[in-house]
Amino acid sequence: MLENPAPPPKTSPATPTPPTAKTTIPCRAHPKRITIRAAHRRRAATGVPAGSPELDWLRQSLRACDLLASVQSISPSDRALVAFGIEWAPYGGADSEELFVKFGVQRSRFLVLLQAAMAPRPSDLERLRTLKTTLCNDLLRAWNESPPRPPSLTSSR
Fold this sequence. Notes:
Layout: H1 31-46, H2 53-70, H3 76-88, H4 96-103, H5 107-117, H6 126-144
Helix pairs in contact: 2-3, 3-5
């Protein structure tokens, strides 16, 4: 017969655990919760101010992506592609390794897939067509611009 394991040691009231040390247990019923919490930690680590235009654009674009998916203007697989593009847009896009691991494609192929996902459909309302076109143009502009680079150490004085 199996015995119950010993209960975990209780911490004394004098040494409470800080709320930031709380660990989340992966839950198959709510996989989005884990990614949202991880995204919050990543955003906090980047040092982007809460009221910055980049963060506002990111939130607005992710809401637009969710709207397009909810009215079935883009498929769930296209939604994953577009959301990935939005999340990496402030950084000039993801590197080749990240794209290959996530989607199995190179950067140029990813941009073609992104354009295909955001192509307006004949069944889309005019407002959705405009939203798709605007979001696609913003993403392509962000992914095609090179991210800002720090000055090199060998630059002239």
